[in-house]
Amino acid sequence: MRIGIVSPAAATRRTGNVHTAQRYAAFLRSAGHRVRLLASWKGEPLDLLIALHARKSADAVLAFARAHPERPIVVMLTGTDLYRDLARSKRAQRALACATRIITLQPDALAHVPRALRPRVTPIVQSATAPARVPARRDGVTQFAVLGHLRAEKDPLRAAYALRRLSRELPMRVVQAGAALDERYLRAAEGLAARDARYRYLGERTHASAIRLLAQSTALVLSSKMEGGANVLCEAIAMGIPVLASRISGNLGILGRAYPGYFPVGDTDACSRLMRRCVEDRAFVRRLRTHVRALRPLVAPRRERRLLLAVVAACAR
CA-to-CA distance for 260 and 113, rounded, in angstroms? Predict the structure, then answer.
């Protein structure tokens, strides 16, 4: 089939959607499909359109549906779709209604899809692989990684704020990487780094550099207010890196409700308590690591490929 994957950020920054689009393209090409990565649809001849993001890709979805009402459309829902835009954006709702099949990035998202559309949904957790070799740190410092662009939905500075509430005698640091998409976050991150040497803000890094940082960390802090199913969470699982995560649907659907490393959204004190526990309680870190490692089959590339190809085959039928 001739398949187009529309990712609105495809021509701009390194985002989770861009990595997802590239991974989907590789899976589909390996099965013999011809795939084009697009920032929008401008009449390219396609047998199937896959749109990442209902609201941001709405123009492409609606135009394709008007031009080819008999051809299938797959819409992948992001966190902002599920937990904000579908409730108030008519265009996002119309785009989703055009979908032959709908992909969510974790099963808990199903409850946030309109009931009438749930039979079209297939949850597909994103896949990741661990890097082959990463030199281990031997400085005895508990390092927390925070990865992702600095924007409001990510609550990106929560770990840095939590660090300020912990004794400087504790051997720990927070290292953050990601472009500041809002000037306020850039000023805040630089100010925090200037006042506390335990916090390092690296700015935007390549994906390979971010993966090395994660692999050398004791734990990932994922403090988002909303997530469809974060790439970085799947990457941490692939590496067996413990995660301290906000208790939101996008994290619950992957880590499970019994995971012991949650804190309430925006709760600096609860986040700092978990960080302190990672420094002082090795048994707690082992418990987190054991739980995360048990989830590795969930993020296996062969699983994501199998499920994606099944969705495409269903569309072809």
Answer: 27
